[in-house]
Specification:
- The structure holds 2 protein chains of 2 kinds.
- Chain A has a single domain (3-434), classed as Cytochrome P450 (Cytochrome p450).
- Chain A has helices at 3-7, 30-34, 37-46, 63-70, 78-85, 91-101, 116-124, 130-134, 137-151, 159-176, 183-194, 203-229, 235-241, 254-285, 287-295, 300-313, 345-348, 384-401; strands at residues 49-52, 57-60, 76-77, 156-158, 319-324, 328-330, 333-335, 340-344, 402-407, 429-434.
- Chain A contains 18 helices and 10 strands.
- By secondary structure, chain A is of the alpha+beta class.
- The N and C termini of chain B lie far apart (34 Å).
- Chain B has one domain: Ubiquitin-like (UB roll) (Roll), CATH 3.10.20.30.
- By secondary structure, chain B is an alpha+beta fold.
- Chain B has 3 helices and 5 strands; from the N terminus they run E-E-H-E-H-H-E-E.
- Classes of the chains: A alpha+beta, B alpha+beta.
- At the A-B interface, helix 16 and helix 18 of A face helix 3 of B.
Chain lengths: 435, 109
C-alpha cells in the first residue's frame, strides 16, 4: 500500500480497520469475509476494479463505477451474470434435481435484462409502493410486538433466530397469503436459495439445498394452483391475475409466477432479516445510538433517516453479480466481453469520496439517500419500501420496550453465513431489560 | 373513481393535458400512462429514485401540500435541482381537489 493512500486516512474519522495488502486477497478469505471494509478501502484506493482470483470475478468497489454499471443494464447484464453465478460448478445436476423432484427449473424472472425485465417489473411494482406499504404499518407493529412479548421477560434472546428471521417470515407470508407456513422450513429454504448465488457450497451441500428448493417449489405450486381458479385477497393472487395492458404478453406465465413467488418469499425475506440483525447489532454495540433512538421514538424524520443511515453503513447485500456483454472500460480497467463481476454495494456505501467519514453513523448526513444498499437503476429492489418500514417499526418498538441491550457474544465470535451475496449473521445472542 | 384534468409541462415547454386522470392514482403513474417526457418512475413508486420529480405551479402548492419526511430525504439526493415547489409524482395521489392541476417536469438528475 502506498504511503500516499495511508495519509488520506489520517483524520478523526473512524477507519475501516487494519490495512490490507491487496496482493492476492479474496473475498473468499474467511477473515476478509467477516470484516471486509478494510479490503474494500484498499481496492477503492489501489485497484478499484479488482480481479479476485479466488472468486474468478471482477470486484467493483467505487461508488462512481457502481453507478456506471447500474445505469447500463444492457452492457452489464444481470441475466448473464446471474446465470454464471447460479449454482456455479453444479448447474446441470442442480437443474436435473429440480426438474425431477421440484416441479421444474424456474429461472428467476426478475434477474433478466430489458426488454423482458421491463414487463416483469411493471407487473410486480404495484405490490410494494410506498403508499401500499404505509397501510401495512399497524400489521407490522403487531407482529413486532408479539415477538417481543415472547422474550421480553426472559432478559435474553437471539436477535437473529428469535426476532429478525421470524419477523420477516411472518410479514411476507401474511402478504403472500400463506397462512399454513412452517417458519423452520422457510428459513431452511431461504438459505438453500441464497446459497445458489453465494459461491460457498460444495456438491453435497448443493444436493441438500436442491432438495430444500424442490420442497419449497412444491409448496408454492400447490398454493398457486389453489388460487388460479379462486383468487383470494393476497399478493399471490394479485400476481397470478396481474395485467399490464400495454404489453404484448399482459399476464405472467405459471413459470414466472412460481419464480417470482419464490423470489418474494425468499430473497426479500432473507435480506430484510439480515438488515434487522444489523439493526440489533448496532443498537447493542453503540448504546448512545440506542439512547438517541429512544429520545426520538415519535420523530418520524429521525426514524426515517436512522433507517437509511443503517442501510448505508451496514447494507445487507454485499454484492450482486453482472456480466459484460461487450468489451468495456471501467475504473481504468478494460473488461473483456463475458467478464463476470461482483458489484460491491457495501463498498460503494463506504466510499469516502461520496459519504464523508463513511464509517460514522450520522443521521444528518445530507446525501444519505444516495446509498446503493438497494441497488440503483431498473433493478433497484422492488420491495424497498417494505424493507424500510419493517426496519423502522422494529427499531421503534424494540427500543420503546427494551433497554440496556448488550451482545452476549464476543465480537470476534460472531459468525456470518457462508455467502458472498449478503453479510448475514448466523446468530446474535443479546441481553436486555424491560423499560 | 372520478376523473380529473392534469397538465404536465415538459422540458421543451410543450404541454400534455390528461383529461381522464383517475383519482386515487399517483401523479407519476398518470404521467407514465401517457408517456410524459421526463417522468420515468424508475423505482415504481417506492420514493427512492426521484425520477418523477415535478415543480408544482404556485396556485396548486397549497392543495398538494408539503412532501413527507421520506420524500424530503429522497429529494435531498437531487438537491441541485430542488425548488420550494418540488414534489415527487409518485407520492402525490390525485384527488378531486386537484382538478386542473399543472406541474412542470423537473430536469434530468
Amino acid at each position: 500500500m502506498s504511503s500516499n493512500a495511508q495519509d488520506t486516512r489520517m483524520d478523526s474519522c473512524p477507519v475501516a480497520g487494519e490495512e490490507v495488502d491487496l496482493g492476492h486477497a479474496s473475498l473468499m478469505d474467511p477473515g476478509i469475509h467477516a470484516h471486509p471494509n478494510a479490503f474494500y478501502w484498499a481496492m477503492r484506493h489501489e485497484q478499484p476494479v479488482y480481479y479476485d482470483e479466488g472468486l474468478d470475478m471482477w470486484l467493483v468497489s467505487r461508488y462512481e463505477d457502481l453507478q456506471t454499471v447500474l445505469a447500463d443494464p444492457i452492457t452489464f447484464s444481470v441475466e448473464a451474470g446471474y446465470a454464471e453465478q447460479y449454482a456455479k460448478g453444479f448447474i446441470d445436476e442442480f437443474k436435473a434435481i429440480l426438474e425431477r423432484d421440484g416441479g421444474g427449473f424456474f429461472p428467476d424472472a426478475i434477474m433478466t435484462d430489458p426488454p423482458y425485465h421491463t414487463r416483469i417489473r411493471k407487473l410486480m411494482e404495484g405490490a410494494f409502493t410506498a403508499h401500499r406499504v404505509k397501510a401495512l404499518e399497524p400489521d407490522i407493529a403487531q407482529v413486532v410486538s408479539e415477538l417481543i412479548d415472547e422474550f421480553a421477560d426472559k432478559g435474553a434472546a437471539d436477535g437473529v433466530q428469535d426476532f429478525a428471521v421470524p419477523m420477516t417470515i411472518r410479514i411476507i407470508c401474511a402478504q403472500l397469503g400463506l397462512t399454513d407456513f412452517d417458519p423452520d422450513k422457510i428459513q431452511r429454504w431461504s438459505l438453500a436459495v441464497t446459497s445458489q448465488i453465494g459461491r460457498m457450497q460444495d456438491r453435497e451441500q448443493m444436493r441438500e439445498n436442491a432438495r430444500e428448493i424442490c420442497d419449497l417449489q412444491n409448496y408454492l405450486i400447490a398454493n398457486i394452483r389453489a388460487r388460479e381458479e379462486t383468487p383470494r385477497d393476497d399478493l399471490l393472487s394479485d400476481m397470478i391475475h396481474a395485467r399490464a395492458e400495454d404489453e404484448e404478453n399482459p399476464t405472467l406465465t405459471f413459470k414466472e409466477v412460481v419464480s417470482l413467488a419464490r423470489a418474494l418469499l425468499i430473497a426479500g425475506n432473507e435480506t430484510t432479516a439480515t438488515a434487522l440483525g444489523n439493526l440489533l447489532y448496532i443498537l447493542a454495540t453503540q448504546p448512545e445510538l440506542a439512547d438517541a433512538v429512544y429520545d426520538n421514538l415519535d420523530d418520524d424524520r429521525y426514524m426515517t433517516r436512522f433507517v437509511e443511515e443503517l442501510l448505508r453503513l451496514e447494507p445487507p447485500v454485499r454484492g450482486l453479480s453482472r456480466m459484460t456483454t461487450k468489451e468495456v472500460e471501467l475504473g481504468g480497467v478494460t473488461l473483456p466481453k463475458g467478464a463476470h463481476m461482483l458489484n460491491l454495494y457495501a463498498s460503494g456505501n463506504d466510499d469516502e469520496t461520496v459519504f464523508e467519514c463513511p464509517r460514522k453513523f450520522d443521521v444528518e448526513r445530507p446525501n444519505i439517500v444516495r446509498h446503493v444498499a438497494f441497488g440503483s437503476g431498473v433493478h433497484r429492489c422492488v420491495g424497498l419500501s417494505l424493507a424500510r418500514m419493517e426496519i423502522k417499526v422494529a427499531a421503534r418498538e424494540f427500543v420503546r420496550r427494551l433497554k440496556d441491550l448488550k451482545l452476549e457474544i464476543a465480537l470476534e465470535d460472531i459468525r456470518y453465513l457462508p455467502t458472498v451475496a449478503t453479510r448475514s449473521m448466523a446468530s446474535l445472542p443479546l441481553s436486555f431489560s424491560k423499560r | 373513481m372520478p376523473t380529473i384534468t392534469v397538465t404536465f409541462i415538459q422540458r421543451d415547454g410543450s404541454e400534455v393535458v390528461i383529461d381522464d386522470a383517475v383519482t386515487g392514482i399517483s401523479l407519476m403513474e398518470t404521467a407514465r400512462t401517457k408517456d410524459v417526457d421526463g417522468i420515468i418512475g424508475e423505482c415504481g413508486g417506492s420514493c427512492a429514485c426521484a425520477t418523477c420529480h415535478v415543480y408544482v405551479e404556485p396556485d396548486w402548492q397549497a392543495v398538494l401540500g408539503e412532501p413527507d419526511v421520506l420524500e424530503e430525504m429522497t429529494l435531498e439526493g437531487v438537491s441541485h435541482i430542488v425548488q420550494d415547489n418540488s414534489r415527487l409524482g409518485c407520492q402525490v395521489l390525485l384527488s378531486e381537489a386537484m382538478d386542473g392541476l399543472r406541474v412542470v417536469v423537473a430536469p434530468p438528475q
